[in-house]
């Protein structure tokens, strides 16, 4: 009983700031203070009349989509290569993949800026996408790798024994089995890119994403409009995570049903 109470208290302490943000996004008064002066949707209405915010949102969606697609291509290729190498090479690849997660975002941002300056690449949306791929790619690879550890290579061998070529085996055996995991991992990469801020500050140049626009608003003043933006971004991220979890859950049930039938 005491342990359960302690767990609920810790969860309440962690979730209380998020609950306050959501609550004050419906505050009728522009003052972020108690007592609460009634509910209002005026801040959500103001969001749809803010042109700069709309541009930043569209730019963030475009960048996150491009990041998810690039991570899908690179991550799936890297994960499949990891499946076919020896144990020592696997360990080296794992250390390489985990390094962007272990390194601080400040270090990655500064390193990318120096790299772009040396190569002569102007800071733009392209550099933002590159920076987000560096951050999101390890997340996708680790997710796909967890699925590949349960992958049975005998399925590919059986397809080759039946006369299928390398590309046919990949298209008809490997890819269908990994597709739900790839979709779920791509959604996670999309969410990581959509919320990324630290690396974006260094590689954005004159471009502005949604997290950067929210940060610039908070430098001037804190209003319920910021809470409304944060609430919508939180809701959007939760929806993506729920979709990824649902896809993985359906895949697990399908796999268990197939095993039970055999």
From TrEMBL:
It comes from the Bacteria. It is a multi-pass membrane protein. It is found in: Cell membrane. Residues 57-244 form the ABC transmembrane type-1 domain. Keywords: Cell membrane, Membrane, Transmembrane, Transmembrane helix, Transport. The keyword Transmembrane helix applies. CDD domains: TM_PBP2 (cd06261). Its main location: membrane. Pfam families: BPD_transp_1 (PF00528). The chain crosses the membrane at residues 57-83, 95-117, 123-144, 181-205, 225-247. SUPFAM superfamilies: MetI-like. Belongs to the binding-protein-dependent transport system permease family. CysTW subfamily. This is ABC transporter permease. It comes from Mesorhizobium argentiipisi. The lineage of its organism: Bacteria, Pseudomonadati, Pseudomonadota, Alphaproteobacteria, Hyphomicrobiales.
